[in-house]
Amino acid sequence: MSQESNQIGKLDWISVGLYALFVLLGWMSIYSAVYNPEAPLWIFDEAFYTSNAGRQLIWIGTSLVLIMLIFALDFRFFESFAVFIYAAFMLALIAVPFLGVTINGSHSWFKLGGITIQPAEFAKTATALLLAKYLNDPQVNLSKWMNQWRSALIIALPMLLIIGSNETGSALVFASFIILLYREGLPGEYPGLLIALIALFVSSLLLSPLTIFICLLVMASLFVIILPIYQRRLPQTYVRIAGAIAIIMSLSTVVDWVVNHVLKEHQRNRIKVLLDPSFDTRGLGYQVTQSKIAIGSGGFWGKGYLGGTQTKFDFVPEQSTDFIFCTIGEEFGFVGVLAVIVLFLFFLWRLLYLADQQRSRFARAYGFGVVGILFFHFLVNIGMTIGLMPIMGIPLPFFSYGGSSLWSFTILLFIFLKLDAHRSDMLSR
Amino acid sequence: MPEGRRIIIFLFFLLIGIIFIGKMFYLQMFDSTYEKAADNNAIRKIIQVPFRGEVYDRFGKLIVYNTPVYDLYITPRKAVVADTNRFCALFGITKGRFDTLTREAWAYSRVKPSLFLKHLSKEDFAKIQDALVDYPGFSISTTAFRTYQSKALSNALGYVAEINTNSLSDQKDDYYRQGDYVGISGLEAFYEEALRGQRGVKYRMVNSNGVEKGEYRHGELDVNSIAGQNLFTSVDIRLQEYADSLMMHKVGSVVAIEPSTGEILSMVSAPSYDPSLLAGRNFSKYYQILALDPLKPLINRPPSAYYRPGSTFKIVQALVGLQLGILTTGSVFTHAGAPVKCHVHNTSHNDLHNAIQWSCNPYFYHAFRKILYDNTQGDTFERSAQGLQRWSELVANFGFGRKLGVDLGNEKKGNLPNVEYYNKVYKGENTWKFSNIYSLSIGEGELVVSPLKMANFAAIIANKGWYIPPHLVKGVGDKKTIDTFYKTPVSVGIDAKHFNVVHEGMRDAVLHGTVGREGKIPDIVMCGKTGTSQNQKGKDHSVFIAFAPKDNPKIAIAVFVENAGFGGFAAAPIASLIIEKYLKGRVDRKDIETKFMNMSYLANVTYNRKIVKKDSLKR
């Protein structure tokens, strides 16, 4: 029992407090979105529990149960059972195309009684656990090819399964494990290459091939100037530079080809909408246009809580789930979004700090996995509401409406906080 | 592993955070288009146009009211038409038209209603009303057309039409919007503000499907509409219709006034038009036709047509002469020495009474000469100027040469020549004298009057020296308010006693003077004066002014019939019939009534392009 109270005392209350604040703000925004000024519902009305706000309250309550469950478990459970947890969710992902039901056009849900669960949401946690467990082996060195490949396999399996069920957005989340791997020793070239590829991808969409070629030539000439004289005289240098330019140019052609032939129609349209804000504002660009209107009309102080018109009257589709940030932007204005962004960044900083405090590599790696996943959602979700990211079905952690989403993020976070509370019990290996 | 990587990772997070904050700052603080777009999304302005006021006659009979017409609106996002063929059959449109209209609506907005079909009649509406339930996304909005109980008062009433672009940009208080209906002429224009009422505006919040979600800002910006006020006119619509029927096949005017109140009982402009033609969905078609008609049916002649008064003006000369003390009832002039001819009549004792009864031209030639020259000094030029000065001051009191202030927009001033006027015409002072201007003596020359002015003159004679400005509306709205201007008598500065000889002379003109058999009413004591108005257009216009009964007059009238010749021929019988109708409620002289209803003077009417243009609708 002494260990139990000890554990509560070691819980990182800053993170818990921020978690609670985010959940509360999220719920308030959901309540505002369903709030009808002509017939306000109160939490004691029965009808309230058929509204999103009422159901979210149920999800919040059950999340508390989940938190208690996590704390009731032995902290070693997660490391010991990581393989089983991972295997179970991979099986669920395989089964979902056959046994699942379709909700909002997405065939990726399980229905258990009255509850629907999206296994993809939980697969992130499972993957983070297994990856952390794999890295916990002191033999594993991420600068080795073999270990890099195995880590990549752990990540790629759920990714491919999720892509298989047409949830490309959710699958992309797994790219965030690059942060975990980077922290655990993956050579810096990998994330560097990833960023370079993204930059190339974006620039080949935005710029014409000729512009890219001219830019590359300019960069190459600058590069040659700073080279030592003896290298400047070697013909190989120029062959290499030409080769690099050729590779980049062909990659940019590949990007075009991928966008036009590999991507599906709706994905291509999302990219078009992103690149051109005035593209089909009533059809394909409707959602992001309305989202920007909602946020943009908030001004500095916002329209006041429950005072929004755009979010309340359904102008922004999905505004309780993926576009919850619009409600905050409209009702609390620039002050509100600034506060949320700053608090979220502080939250991420706090978790990064905690992760680095861990004695076990398992806990530390898992912590970085958690931060990576949260950051990726933050990046894409807020980015898409203001037209900086293509629209993907990515919720804002803790804020967005939805049982699966809230539960999975709660579990993801509190496993880490549980591990953190036990960090003095961990054996540093 | 180095902890430095944590810092690198966090710096990357920070960079993203800063980019987001920067973009938010731009969206929320700099770009105001989003605010407008948001209002445009969620706030719907609902305009409520109240019904225009109705128009009643002096006995409370309804003349003009509103018939609702129905506009069909479509909200594309909600609109579902399962069976297009059935829909098209129901609304009487082709498949192609349906597609065009739908496409236009989609192009305008997915969620806001746009006009689909305009001006459905009550019958059409009844037909589709029940079926409308089957077509979600279609809604009906009600507007109204003016509807007329009588076709007889169209020129005085004026018409209502969509506001034109010029008036829209010229308006002072910024009330009207594109597509608003506004009174264009007549009473509709003069009482526009009372008739139209006040448009109401409601701001409602709507959701993305266009469903209302309550008042915007608790309705603090809402304005309730105020219904248009009714007009209670002084017109006797039965008399109006009767006078109108007498003026068929003629060009001219009738104005009848109740002398004691200045209330206009009837105002006919001939030829006229069916007012319902300009009140329906075919406005532009009929307007074209009417505007191009050379007989100019759209013009309201009584307050705006220009005529010479002719011999009716001799009454003015008589009264002015008496008031100046230059004439007396006993003044006698012979035909001798006058350049104007006369009819054959007894001139053995040609006094004022006799001269009025027989409309003696030489008498008034001499009388006017005396009015100009008596008690004046200097040469004939100077004496003429002095004489005309005092003459024109008195004559102006009758309302000649200025507006009487009738409640119609297109009243014309007419012309009363004075010293200044002739100085201008003859280019200098003392360049003209009596011999240049003597045609004024018999109501010709540069005198210009309107039928309304002459009717008012008849009322002045009936009242023995005063009038109340003629008006068509007795009261506006439920309280029947009216400008005190239309309640206040105006004196013309002629002593009442001077009117006795005029009354007697006018009575004898009717009984055994210039007025023929057809202008006599056996059982009504009518006093009248004929006139023959010379004009460049062709045959003389026939003019007659009268009032009756002689004691305590109830009606004063002026009738102008263009190119109908001598006043006794056409104008006098028509005036007598109208008076008989008004005073007795029936007409016993059926043969005369039938004759003048069918009589046409149109063959004599000539019109040239120039004059058509000059008198066109422009005000």
How does this model look, in words?
The complex is a heterodimer of chains A (429) and B (619). The longest helix of chain A has 34 residues, at 324-357. Chain A is globular. Chain A folds into two domains: 2-187 and 284-421, no CATH class; 195-262. Chain A has 18 helices and three strands. Chain A has a three-stranded antiparallel β-sheet. With 429 residues, chain A is mostly helical. In chain B, a hairpin with a 5-residue loop joins strand 8 and strand 9.
Outline of this structure?
The complex is a heterodimer of chains A (429) and B (619). Chain A is mainly α and 429 residues long. In chain A, 68% of the residues lie in helices and 3% in strands.
Largest interface: chains, residues each: A-B, 51 and 37 residues
Structural class of chain B: alpha+beta
The low-confidence parts of chain A are: none
What Rg of chain B, in angstroms, do the CA atoms define? 33 Å
Reported for the largest beta sheet of chain B, the result is: 6 strands, mixed
**Number of structurally distinct domains of chain A:** 2
Task: Give me the oligomer status.
Answer: heterodimer
Strand segment tally of chain A:
3
Beta-strand fraction estimate of chain A: under 5%
Number of helices of chain A: 18
Mean pLDDT of chain B: 87
Large-scale geometry of chain A: globular
The sequence of SSEs of chain A as H and E is HHHHHEEEHHHHHHHHHHHHH
What's the N-to-C terminus distance of chain B? 94 Å
Structural class of chain A: mainly alpha
Helix share bin of chain A:
55-70%
Q: Number of folding domains of chain B? A: 3
CATH class of the largest domain in chain B equals: Alpha Beta
Gross morphology of chain B is elongated
Q: How many H/I helices of chain B?
A: 23
Provide the CATH architecture of the largest domain in chain B: 3-Layer(aba) Sandwich
